[in-house]
């Protein structure tokens, strides 16, 4: 027997296959990050395009605010208190509408962006049009999911405000002793629930679940993995934040630099034009950075979902059989097969001769 060969009758270890961006087995942290980068690189139009769309409303609002700042400043000098109050209410209402629209748009596009990540697991490229075509039947469920999360968040904030108001009204001086721990507790509760429900958009799209079923599915998948998911999420958020600041900090120096070059002697007209140009440039750069960061974080979320299903449902075996047979090349890997296909359901069992048993 050659030196180092396995004992007679025992199966030889075979490394897990890697047909796409990740190996078909439970993932490590580095593999999740690498897979997220690879998903963005291989599906740049779909991922970055959808990420830019999520930042579009904020970019438009920033650019419009910059262009109207000068005129509003002149108007404010002659406006009455009633005019100022009306303007403030209008701005708050507009900001609320834009925020709600951005949340719903982000929820829909985040669910859609799961599609190219899942297809990249089996090395199947996805364009923007294909991504939206595959995600279109799930848009209603994604909107419902976003509505549930927004409604729950608003209800929790209103309840917190009512409790704090009661504290400060009845307890007064000692209210701060209760308010600070209460706020910390609410923040911790939001973080805990947020991690438990993180992969709900992926479950809604890939498993074709409704909004409530997607939330239950996410809650079940993240069981016994909460701390691990929290650590990965924090590291990715810090990484995205640092890179974003590295890109945006030089942009913040543009006003002083351009003011000295373009308008060294000042002047209201030149200053106003410069402010508008800088506002638009800042909005565009911010949208680009935010879109790429959103796409990367969504890729990480989708790969966490795939990892959890490989750990709990044996999804790696299903994906391996799908890669070997080439079944459903235009569909979404991980979705239950249609009648008449030869792809097993998650957890149904390994394909004969498939890893890790060898041939």
Helix content: over 70%
Write down how many β-strands occur, each being a DSSP E stretch of 2 or more residues.
0
Overall 3D form? globular
Order of helices and strands: HHHHHHHHHHHHH
Counting DSSP H or I runs of 4 or more residues, the number of helices is 13
| Percent of residues in beta strands | under 5%
Mean of residue pLDDT? Answer: 80
Question: Which ranges are low-confidence, i.e. pLDDT below 50, for 5 or more consecutive residues?
Answer: 341-359
State the distance separating the first and last CA atoms.
Answer: 20 Å
Structural class from helices and strands? mainly alpha
Specify Rg, calculated over alpha carbons.
26 Å
Biggest pleated sheet: none
Structure overview:
Helix 3 packs antiparallel against helix 4 and helix 11 packs antiparallel against helix 12. The longest helix has 45 residues. This protein is 72% helix and 0% strand. With 359 residues, it is an all-alpha fold.
Brief summary:
The protein has 359 residues and is mainly alpha-helical.
How do the helices and strands line up, and which of them pair or pack?
Blueprint lengths: L28 H14 L1 H11 L1 H23 L2 H40 L7 H8 L3 H32 L4 H22 L3 H7 L4 H11 L4 H27 L1 H9 L5 H45 L2 H11 L34
